[in-house]
């Protein structure tokens, strides 16, 4: 299914998987008559990859050579490695390719980690919360959620959550929009009436 030999290295298998995942990812076939076929193919690719890696873990005494992680499931060891290496877009692409029925607590934790690195804090919070609900005893998941909770409440400088703006508050977007409007007004009036133009 992946087009690799039985003697292929883990890195070769992962590269073949990524290539197939890019080719058949359902997002590439949105509003296309082939979308159902792409979903089936993606599921087959995921199953083939999982079967190969599971067999290798069993043969290596329970651990694949690419993923030496103490916390969480080793099903997503390659994605953990990508996140650690800063290969966020690749990790997100692989996470998105995982069938919804196979998204466990580890998937939600890794998804939250990717979203956090992209600056999507509220979405990351939702993923971390889901991971903690699914596996409440995992300290790694709990630590990530606690850190994000501290940020939400103003610790570490905080971040602005979606919601109503504080009275009298002004964001960078407000200032930028104001400058764009002022420039447009000046241009409409010939540009000579305003000293800033």
Quickly describe the structure.
By secondary structure, this protein is mainly alpha-helical.
What does this structure look like?
- There is one protein chain.
- The chain is mainly α.
- It folds into 3 domains: 66 residues, DnaJ domain (Helix Hairpins), CATH 1.10.287.110; 86 residues, Tetratricopeptide repeat domain (Serine Threonine Protein Phosphatase 5, Tetratricopeptide repeat), CATH 1.25.40.10; 27 residues.
- The chain is 58% helix and 0% strand.
- It has 8 helices and no strands.
- About 14% of the residues have low confidence.
Q: What is the straight-line distance between the termini?
A: 63 Å
Helix vs. strand class: mainly alpha
Would you state the CATH class of the largest domain?
Answer: Mainly Alpha
Helix tally equals 8
The CATH superfamily title of the largest domain: Tetratricopeptide repeat domain
CATH topology of the largest domain: Serine Threonine Protein Phosphatase 5, Tetratricopeptide repeat
H/E element sequence: HHHHHHHH
Could you give a short account of the major beta sheet? none
Rg, rounded, reads 23 Å
Number of strands: 0
- What CATH architecture of the largest domain would you give? Alpha Horseshoe
- The total domain count is 3
Q: Stretches where pLDDT falls below 50 for ≥5 residues?
A: 61-74, 156-169
**Helical residues, percent:** 55-70%
Cα shape: globular
Q: Mean pLDDT, nearest integer?
A: 74
Q: Which percent band covers the strand fraction?
A: under 5%
């Amino acid at each position: 299914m992946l087009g690799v030999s039985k003697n292929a290295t883990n890195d070769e298998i992962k590269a073949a998987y990524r290539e197939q995942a890019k080719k058949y990812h359902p997002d590439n076939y949105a509003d296309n008559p082939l979308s159902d076929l792409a979903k089936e193919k993606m599921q087959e690719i995921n199953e083939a990859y999982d079967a190969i890696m599971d067999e290798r873990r069993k043969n290596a005494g329970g651990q694949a050579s690419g993923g030496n992680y103490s916390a969480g499931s080793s099903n997503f060891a390659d994605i953990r490695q990508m996140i650690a290496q800063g290969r966020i877009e690749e990790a997100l692409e692989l996470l998105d390719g995982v069938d919804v029925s196979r998204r466990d607590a580890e998937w939600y934790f890794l998804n939250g980690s990717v979203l956090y690195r992209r600056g999507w804090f509220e979405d990351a919070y939702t993923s971390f919360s889901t991971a903690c609900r699914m596996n409440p005893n995992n300290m790694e998941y709990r630590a990530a959620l606690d850190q994000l909770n501290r940020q939400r409440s103003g610790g570490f400088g905080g971040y602005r959550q979606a919601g109503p703006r504080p009275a009298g508050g002004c964001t960078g977007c407000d200032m930028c929009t104001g400058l764009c409007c002022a420039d447009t007004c000046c241009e409409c009036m010939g540009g000579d009436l305003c000293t800033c133009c």
